[in-house]
Q: What sequence folds into this?
């Protein structure tokens, strides 16, 4: 069937959803909503409606919500009440309690509730997860992430934890197949804003894998790196460029004792993989479409996003109180 889609919010993120929706097979874009109007000119003759109820009255089957996080709860609950399949941009909500209300509303409505963790559709991370599941690294020891960049002017309602760190929390659990057990974090406020702009966090997953995250909005360059270390080597994903490299543990013993003692393992072959690089947002919308049609479950569920929200709140609690939090 052709899915009649509406998009709420046509700003910095929503405009890209509009572009992708127009080229996605099996989807017809029928309504746009933004109280601020069409400031990026993506309507192409389509009227931009002032409210969600106006969009619902157009007879939509599904919606994508790309408004500031503070409005997610209100908009999502209206869509659930109308029985509309919905993809909400990350994070799910401003708080765990608000997110729980959304999850329950979509469960009760019996419609698809998805969340836009687009990094799960990054070619490098998809390939990384597949290789880990296939045993390429053997037992996993540690996952480390770096997510650093200049401050984005579009962010006004949350700090770096719920905007950027939420990606790394989600992907750490997704790649390793395990949840957070403990987390310790420290944050900083360097730009004069109410919300935090720097984070360092470390912890342990339920299966014993160590995790650490280094995240900020104050670097003069963009860094999107995920490193997974296992008993057979390391996989390194540069998600900004969608590159994946495998650093294999060497099989030849190091003859130089001082070097061997320092490195622990010898260096082996380094392989950078050739990957089919599709735009992640295209894959995300296709996964949402397929879930609605009952032919796939590759979308990020609202329950998964709620668990990620729980970890972000634990991170903020740890930074505020100065102790490690057990989840």
A:
């Amino acid at each position: 069937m052709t899915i009649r889609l509406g998009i709420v919010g046509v700003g910095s993120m929503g405009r890209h959803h509009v572009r992708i929706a127009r080229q996605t097979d099996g989807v017809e874009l029928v309504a746009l909503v933004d109280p601020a109007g069409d400031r990026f000119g993506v309507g192409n003759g389509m009227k931009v409606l002032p409210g969600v109820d106006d969009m619902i009255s157009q007879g939509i089957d599904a919606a994508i919500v790309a408004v500031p996080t503070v409005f997610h709860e209100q908009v999502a609950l209206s869509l659930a009440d109308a029985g509309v399949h919905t993809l909400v941009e990350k994070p799910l909500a401003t708080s765990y309690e608000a997110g729980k209300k959304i999850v329950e509303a979509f469960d009760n409505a019996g419609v698809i509730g998805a969340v836009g963790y687009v990094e799960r559709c990054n070619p490098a991370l998809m390939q990384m997860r597949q290789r880990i599941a296939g045993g390429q690294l053997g037992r996993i020891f540690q996952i480390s992430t770096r997510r650093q960049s200049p401050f984005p002017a579009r962010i006004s309602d949350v700090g770096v934890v719920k905007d950027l760190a939420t990606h790394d929390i989600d992907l750490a659990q997704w790649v390793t197949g395990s949840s957070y057990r403990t987390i310790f974090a420290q944050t900083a406020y360097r730009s004069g804003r109410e919300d935090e702009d720097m984070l360092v966090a470390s912890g342990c997953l339920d299966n014993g894998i160590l995790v650490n995250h280094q995240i900020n909005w104050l670097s003069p360059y963009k860094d999107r790196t995920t490193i997974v270390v296992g008993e057979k080597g390391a996989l390194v994903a540069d998600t900004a460029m969608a590159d994946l490299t495998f650093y294999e543990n060497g099989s030849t013993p190091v003859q130089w004792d001082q070097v061997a003692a320092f490195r622990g393992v010898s260096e082996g072959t380094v392989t950078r993989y050739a990957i089919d690089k599709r735009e992640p947002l295209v894959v995300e919308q296709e996964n949402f479409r397929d879930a609605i049609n009952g032919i796939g479950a590759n979308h990020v569920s609202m329950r998964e996003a709620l668990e990620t929200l729980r970890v972000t709140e634990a991170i903020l609690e740890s930074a505020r109180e100065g102790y490690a939090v057990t989840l």
About this structure: The chain has a mean pLDDT of 94. The domain at 120-278+308-326 is CATH 3.30.360.10 (Dihydrodipicolinate Reductase; domain 2). Residues 302-321 form the longest helix (20 residues).
